[in-house]
């Protein structure tokens, strides 16, 4: 690890004391632990020799690994069966499950690359809707890919600034704001964070964080929860900002009970609000800070009106894509590819066929008219070209896939990696012609179109494995 700035070391001494700060500096020289979080919507038959060693505190699906494998070559990683996530940030799971017991409308404001959004989707009560947002276009594309792989249909991915959500007045029950920060908690993993660190940058980040909260506060429902987090240590971006939110908006800072064995540190500066710091010399994970705030109740408040969408409604926008099939026949085919199709609002446009869960369809339609930029929503079931709908890769990744609608070929490890590199796959000679679902260890990887003499690989070009190397063996997750 690169040399740390003297100003940072002095800051930690002032915050923690000399002895505690020295322990932190020593921990920052050690190797970071590797951890993953299993996808409860895509359970996999356990391996006889898994490389995970124990669970992550406070997160039932979290696992520490005994070593860091080359995740790029694991087909289950590409299938969305787990997410590689830093362990300390998984405490968000504890916060959600302690504070939320009924379905909610939730916003992950700064969602990329997807760790907290996938965790939210796994932790929120059944029937909840998640809007996962990222302001930077390139990062938003990564977020969309990871949320598609996670596979839950009640998710929308947007590419908007925080202020764009201001018209969603009093709508969200929960807003998670893992705000951009100075990154002190990631120093042992990210040399760039060390290079960019300065006291001036700390103050700039603190100001930007307040601006982000101010922009989105009106979208939080009275009585709703703001979960504020950073991956940094200093009080300016943490305790001081929590105090500012509490004082500026009258928010109540709520306690968070930590799981047994989690040696996090409470408030280190200023008002005695119940917040938590995770330091590398105390926990097995990276640096993290979290606080939960409740917006004051408001008598007679009005929230954004969203009309009900019933299951019989269909998208009315005409399909401009040239296709030999009318919309009715397109839907007759594609609705057989999704479990419980009556639970979705079906929309056919030039993009293709999209199935939107009824719980989120009205917000999607409203958002399209009011400046929200959606990268993903519900399930893109099919694209349209020529005489037939083509099953979309998003469908293969979705937990709502009705897999019995397709012939299935289970691949060995080497063939699975070849498919993910978008190479030609040789199917068994008795494989039916048409669209075929490929799997690995019974988990869908995507589609091919079997023409008899060859099979067209339909894996997304932009998602393919670019490395030409295939390991002879892979440590099984």
Produce the secondary structure layout.
Elements: H1 6-16, H2 18-27, E1 34-38, E2 52-56, E3 59-65, H3 75-78, E4 82-84, H4 91-99, E5 105-108, H5 115-123, E6 129-133, H6 137-150, E7 155-158, E8 172-178, H7 191-196, H8 199-216, E9 220-230, H9 239-249, E10 252-254, E11 276-278, E12 288-294, H10 327-334, E13 344-349, E14 352-357, H11 358-369, E15 374-377, E16 379-385, E17 388-391, H12 393-397, E18 408-410, H13 413-420, E19 434-440, E20 443-450, E21 455-457
Parallel strand pairs: 5-6, 5-8, 6-7, 8-9, 18-19
Antiparallel strand pairs: 1-3, 1-4, 2-3, 7-15, 9-12, 10-12, 11-12, 13-14, 14-16, 16-17, 19-20, 20-21
Helix pairs in contact: 1-2, 4-5
CATH class of the largest domain: Alpha Beta
Q: Averaging pLDDT over every residue, what do you get?
A: 93
The main sheet comes to: 9 strands, mixed
CATH superfamily heading of the largest domain: Vaccinia Virus protein VP39
Query: Which overall shape is indicated by the principal axes computed on the Cα atoms?
Result: globular
| Total beta strands | 21
Query: How many domain regions?
Result: 3
**Which fold name fills CATH's third level, the topology of the largest domain?**
Rossmann fold
Low-confidence stretches: none
Distance from N terminus to C terminus (CA atoms, Å) equals: 28 Å
| Radius of gyration, in angstroms, nearest whole number | 24 Å
